[in-house]
Structures are given as C-alpha cells and as structure tokens.
Amino acid sequence: MKIVFATHNQHKLEEVRELLPSFVELLSLTDIGCLEEIPETGKTLEENAKIKADYVTSTFGLNCFSDDTGLLIDALHGAPGVYSARYAGTQKSTPDNIAKVLREMESTNNRAAHFKTVVHLNLKNESYSFDGIVEGNITKKKYGTGGFGYDPIFKPEGHEVTFGEMSPEIKNAISHRGRAIRKLMAFFEKIEQ
Ligand code: IMP
User: Fold this and answer.
1) CA–CA distances in Å: residue 48 to residues 52, 54, 82, 162
2) Residues designated catalytic
3) Residue with CA at minimum distance from ligand 1 atom 3
4) Model pLDDT for residues 95-107, shown as the tens digit of each residue
5) For ligand 1, mutation pick of 150, 161, 167, 169 (most atoms within 8 Å of CB)
C-alpha cells in the first residue's frame, strides 16, 4: 500500500520509514512531485496537520498522513504553540525563537510546558487523528547541542537533562513525535490483520 508522508524533511521520513510495517510503501512530497510549501494557515496543530494531509489527498488523489508539532508553555498561555517554528519571525530562526522564550519567561518560576504532535491520516476516504504529548519544564538557559528546535531548553519530566543533551534513541523513545508515530504504526499493524 502506497502512502505519502506530507513532509520535505528527509530526516523525519527515514525515521518513520524504519518503523513502518513492510506492506506500507512510504513516499515523500518530493517523490510525488509536490515541490511547493503547503501553507500552514490553521489556528491549531490539528487544523494544520489536516490542511497538509487534505492538500495532498485532494490534489494528488493519494492516501496521506502529515504531522504538526508545537511547544506549549503554561506561563505563556500555550505559546508558542502552533507558531513554534516562526515565534520570533518568519525567518524561522531557532536561536531567535529560544531567546524570545527565555526572555519572556525571565521573571516567572512557572516553567511547566509540553510538546504536542498531531498526526492526521487520510486513508481510503476515512480520516484518523493520533497525538503524542511529553510534559516537562523550560530551563533558564540552553543545555546541550543535540536535536533541533527548542530541545536545548526542554527538560522532559522524570529526566535530569534536556532533549538537547539526550541521544536521538532516548529522545525518540519518550518524545511527543515518537509517541504519535507509534500510535500510527499500531494502527497500520492492526489494519494489516
Ligand atoms: P514541525 O511541525 O515538526 O515542523 O515543528 C514545528 C516547530 O516546532 C519546529 O520548527 C520546532 O521549532 C518545534 N519542534 C518540533 N518538534 C520539536 C522537537 O522535537 N524538539 C524541539 N523543537 C521541536
């Protein structure tokens, strides 16, 4: 069964491909000739994930899933949330995004936050949604150089180090994206039977 993962990110694609049952043939946006950036105009992670998957299904007539992730910080009333990639501006600079978060949280001791990933799947005229959440705390400065995005300032609950200090294997085992993708994999395995 062919299915599109609505991403241009080769790293994400390979990560997911490794987890998939062998009857699923995974294609990227590049593989299907969809070279444009699909606009993420939704106000929630759920809306954005649906917009991306629906775009591919309606334009190319293909089964498709997509993911959308955000960091939601309690003291910032859920920001940066759906705007995580472009929190400090459309240049999508990770150092600028982190600096903005740390600046806005300078005077608060409420460090609670969570990452959330939503996966939207369109399969044979039905749609499904899966999510993955990891709770944690925002540190007062950056720790570690691993991972990407807000990893150096996010310390997952029950751990003494940030995502930026963890190996990719440990991060994947507990992360928001890992959790959502494993729910998707479990779904694929169930329908195979
Ligand atoms: P996307 O929906 O996966 O493209 O994620 C949107 C933005 O959320 C990214 O540009 C990052 O800033 C942030 N983000 C997503 N996943 C992670 C993660 O695992 N660690 C740190 N930041 C992340």
Assistant:
1) 6, 10, 8, 27
2) 68
3) 69
4) 999 999 999 999 9
5) 150
